[in-house]
Amino acid sequence: MDEEYDVIVLGTGLKECILSGLLSVDGLKVLHMDRNDYYGGESTSLNLIQLWKRFRGNDKPPAHLGSSRDYNVDMIPKFMMANGTLVRVLIHTDVTKYLYFKAVDGSYVFNKGKVHKVPATDMEALKSPLMGIFEKRRARKFFIYVQDYDEKDPKTHEGLDLTRVTTRELIAKYGLDDNTVDFIGHALALHRDDRYLNEPALDTVKRMKLYAESLARFQGGSPYIYPLYGLGELPQAFARLSAVYGGTYMLNKPECKVEFNEEGKVIGVTSEGETARCKKVVCDPSYLPNKVRKVGRVARAIAIMSHPIPNTNDSHSVQVILPQKQLGRKSDMYLFCCSYSHNVAPKGKFIAFVSTEAETDHPETELKPGIDLLGPVDEIFFDIYDRYEPVNEPSLDNCFISTSYDATTHFESTVMDVLNMYTLITGKVLDLSVDLSAASAAEE
């Protein structure tokens, strides 16, 4: 333990594991520690016995739910965009060889009390019951503009500078009604609230293009993919990557106290009376509570069911987004469902999550609109957790702290946090065009 490292990473949550993998690949000497005896930190997956211990205080789940080890229940449920940044990171690092992914069956949106499939292309817009006949034509024109839009080709811009024109102005040009704007902004562009309407339209157009490209990539019913056996597989895959490149792992290390010199710069981490020295520390908010502030809370329900979510075409895996306006809330609600088809539950069982940014202290009441869409449930658990973000200045203390996971059920915001942290730590932007698997094959 008494060695010198370039970076010590504390916590084995997904963000910390991706960073330890990327930094090890860069040739840095990395020590990765966790006070828990399992990988995944907050983003771990639990079997049935662990789930019962955590939420019911005993380890005796009812027998009718089947074998405990057939369950992998994500504590931070999220799908990945098939063509999104996280998938590009997975391919760049060759971590894909440790993981198996499967497309997610459906992508839906809640509108006027009903669940509808999200139309993503001009052809789907024409078929969607979300819109009347004239609105469909207007929406189709807008979708064609977005599909044809190419940042480098001014001919596709129709005279609009999308770095200046707001999303609200762009949408007004096509005369779309509020309902259409709602599903485009929240279920296609995956914005979490309505601030985007007053921001430059380029971001929304890029997000819509990502959705359509992701949908095309696997020819599935949604733009999302999800690993077999749940998200707990991801931190372990990046931990393996780090180990392949010389990273050292120590689980079950109590306390993990970060040590500073008199200038307030990090100099190492002490656990069990031994100190490992380092130049930089990367960690989740729980390791440096005096350098973070609380920014909100996530309310969540976890349900075990014996049927798919009604009105989703019997999808075995699905995301339903409930835009804030439809619920009279400040933030969206998300419904995530997966099942035995992704090996996260025994045959015939489905696991559904309803999550949102908490606006009250009563998760049961607050999550009701999402829970009402589930139909009968075998078991349901409620949870509420605080969200933190760093307030320190990394250039002064060399501490790089991740932000807590938000309520969304997709990974785009998570991976942006990772890439920003990577740039802060290394001073460079991660080049995702490089394919490390090709590089390592050439070396062999």
From TrEMBL:
Signal peptide: none annotated. It comes from the Eukaryota. The keyword Kinase does not apply. InterPro entries: FAD/NAD-bd_sf, GDP_dissociation_inhibitor, RabGDI. GO terms for molecular function: GTPase activator activity; Rab GDP-dissociation inhibitor activity. GO terms for biological process: protein transport; small GTPase-mediated signal transduction; vesicle-mediated transport. GO terms for cellular component: apoplast; cytoplasm. It holds the Pfam family GDI. Gene3D superfamilies: FAD/NAD(P)-binding domain (3.50.50.60), Guanine Nucleotide Dissociation Inhibitor, domain 1 (1.10.405.10), Guanine Nucleotide Dissociation Inhibitor, domain 2 (3.30.519.10). Keywords: GTPase activation. Regulates the GDP/GTP exchange reaction of most RAB proteins by inhibiting the dissociation of GDP from them, and the subsequent binding of GTP. Belongs to the Rab GDI family. PANTHER family: RAB GDP DISSOCIATION INHIBITOR, RAB GDP-DISSOCIATION INHIBITOR. This is Guanosine nucleotide diphosphate dissociation inhibitor.
